[in-house]
Structures are given as structure tokens and as C-alpha cells.
């Protein structure tokens, strides 16, 4: 089967295209990765190159040894992926130590996986461990409203979670663990990968101050949906602040009632 005809590649491309249309991916901003299933690799095995040159990832992810990842290319534009996936995305194979990768498909005119590959792989590593393999998608975007809030809200999980939860009743149901926040850091390297993946033990959403967000999830719909839900709530927050701030809101007791009714395990540290 052709790689671009598989459902997982089609699903990946659909996310990148929808996300560009959302306005979350100026120029080469943002990146997406998917931990490919063994059954999906079996469908395309004949189309994959035999790995020759392995390149250091920059971080060590032993529990991802031997896995394959579909990932956006460094410097590639989300809006171009749908036009020519072969040039803009790649499948990377992780070596038996979990320290190096080789491109086995895609980036046909050269290139490397996203500059945030270390953060993607460390997040995959943590999520694979704690969800027993259920989570497969890591997604990074630059949505304007969440970034705007990182200039005015205190940069901590409690402040962000509480504001985002309050702006839309569905939020505490969709992400009852809340959102983590990383202070401004230099992107693209090991330090921000370590800081982000630590928070991914607790959250599915990690905000990078003055930069963007990382979301993690089981599949493309859930992960894209998570980004969409958080950013929508951030947009409401920006509007409310622009109108002079809240005059009434959802109370801690309201959240407790909601959690009980919807049987969600709400992170009560963020309530009063
Ligand atoms: O891919 O978003 O954080 C470009 C970026 C880096
Ligand atoms: Zn970014």
C-alpha cells in the first residue's frame, strides 16, 4: 500500500490542514507526531527504506526503541503538507537504544524531523509509559489567544487552569487534570523537552509561555479537539478581559457539582 493512502497518514494530514486553517500555524510554526502502530507499519513495510544512517535524537527514550513515528519536517509549512506530504513529513525509526533515529520514508528532498523532536519523543515516552501505550499523538501549535494570556496571567498551573476552566463549562470535563505551564525557555532542545515531559506526567496540555502549547492524546480527533477546546476557552478569556473582566463566573462549588454529575476526577487543588 502507498504510505499516503493509509488511514493514519490521511488522519495526520487532515489535522495539519485543519490546524493551518484555524490560524495556529504561521510560516513553519508548530509540529505534529504520531507513534505508528505495528499493524500500520505492516501495511507499508514494502514502501519503507532500510535505515542506513542513524542520527542522535539529543535525548534518551529507551521505551521507544524500535518504534516508528510519523512527524512533520523541520522548517516545513503546515499548509504545504496536504499538497505534497512526501516532501514535508517523514517516518522516523528509533534505534534499539532509543537514542538515535533514521528516516525511512518522506522528506524526499532532504531535511530532518521538527526541531521539537526531542520534546515530542520525551512526551511520547512518558505518555506511552503512563497510559500503557494508549496515547499516540503529540501536537504543538501557536494559537494566538493562549499565547496572549501568557502575558497577563500568572505563569502557573493553578492560575491558568482555573481561568481556562471558568471560560467554558465543557473544559473541566474535557481536561479534568488541568493544564501545566512552562516558563519561557529556549525552544528546540533537551532542557525544554525535560521540563515539558515532567509536566506531561500530570497533564495532557502544557503551555509554553510566550510561545504556544503542547497537547497529548490517544488519537488525532482527541488531540486536535483538546487544542481546539483550550484555545476556544482562551479566546473567550481574552474577550472577557478586553470587556473589563468578569462580573460573574462559575464557582468552586459549581465545579464540584459538575464533576459529580459527569463523574470526572477533577483536580481539586485548583478549586478554592
Ligand atoms: O516548528 O514551532 O517551536 C517550529 C516551532 C518551534
Ligand atoms: Zn513552536
From TrEMBL:
- Residues engaged in binding Zn(2+): 140, 142, 211
Keyword Cytoplasm assigned to the entry: answer is yes
Class II aldolase/adducin N-terminal domain sequence ranges: 10-238
Q: Which GO terms describe its molecular function?
A: metal ion binding; rhamnulose-1-phosphate aldolase activity
**Per its Swiss-Prot or TrEMBL entry, what cofactor is needed?**
Zn(2+)
Q: Pfam families under this entry?
A: Aldolase_II (PF00596)
The residues responsible for catalysis, as annotated, are 116
Q: Name one GO biological process term.
A: pentose catabolic process
GO cellular component terms, alphabetically, are:
cytosol
Sorted keywords for this record are: Cytoplasm, Lyase, Metal-binding, Rhamnose metabolism, Zinc
Q: Which reaction does it catalyse?
A: L-rhamnulose 1-phosphate = (S)-lactaldehyde + dihydroxyacetone phosphate
Show the Gene3D superfamilies listed in the entry: Class II aldolase/adducin N-terminal domain
User: What superkingdom does the record give?
Assistant: Bacteria
Is this entry keyworded Membrane? no
According to its UniProt record, where is this protein located?
A: Cytoplasm
Coiled coil segments of this chain: none
Q: For this protein, what is the EC number? A: 4.1.2.19
Q: Which residues cross the membrane?
A: none
The cofactor note reads: Binds 1 zinc ion per subunit.
- Tell me the pathway: Carbohydrate degradation; L-rhamnose degradation; glycerone phosphate from L-rhamnose: step 3/3
Biological function: Catalyzes the reversible cleavage of L-rhamnulose-1-phosphate to dihydroxyacetone phosphate (DHAP) and L-lactaldehyde.
Instruction: Tell me the protein's name.
Output: Rhamnulose-1-phosphate aldolase
